[in-house]
Amino acid sequence: MFSAKIPFLKNQIFNIQNLYESAYILLQPKAIFSMLGVSIFSWFFECFGFYLILFNFEQGFSILWTTFVYAFSIIAGAVSMLPGGLGVTEGSLSLILIKGGIPNESAIATTIIIRMVTLWFAVILGLVVLFFLRREYNNSLNKTRSNNG
Fold first, then answer.
1. CA 139 to CA 117: how far, in whole Å?
2. Mean pLDDT, each 10-residue run in order, the chain (149 residues)
């Protein structure tokens, strides 16, 4: 194997082979399309949650319109390359809602609520889990480093 001749890669051959084998399995069409289906299903529920928030603010928009607005704003945030699309997602979501005829207060409240229950809930949950599992994580990391080093 060519990489065995390069000193830096020589120590990483096992990891490189593991990466290749995992990628080969995960990038098979069956795996990709099944995960695409799961992703579309789960993302739709975020869009549906956005629809329910607007519904509770007595805004009569269709599920198709709310799905487009939410998805467009999330994509705009992703394109911005900022963590979580911070600022761009919220700004585009609020702006589209306001331009769609929703009062400013309702648009901003809707934006805050949907971002709290989607992005920030996951962030807070991750921090709580990390706080409680950090000892196990550090022990695992130390074992990995001692085995590889």
1. 32
2. 65 84 91 93 92 91 94 94 92 95 94 92 89 78 68
Of the candidates 117, 111, 115, the one whose C-alpha atom is nearest the C-alpha of residue 57 is 111
Give pLDDT, residue 129: 87
pLDDT of residue 101: 92
Query: How buried is residue 74: exposed, middle or buried, by Cβ count under 10 Å (0-12/13-18/19+)?
Result: buried
Q: For position 13, what pLDDT does the model report?
A: 81
What is the DSSP track for 53-97? HHHHTT----HHHHHHHHHHHHHHHHHTTSGGGTTHHHHHHHHHH
Q: How far apart are CA 50 and CA 28, in angstroms?
A: 33
CA pair distance 144, 122, nearest whole angstrom: 27
- What's the confidence (pLDDT) of residue 45? 93
User: How many angstroms separate the Cα of 146 from the Cα of each of 62, 133, 134, 149?
Assistant: 56, 20, 18, 5
Domain ranges for the chain, please list them: 10-121
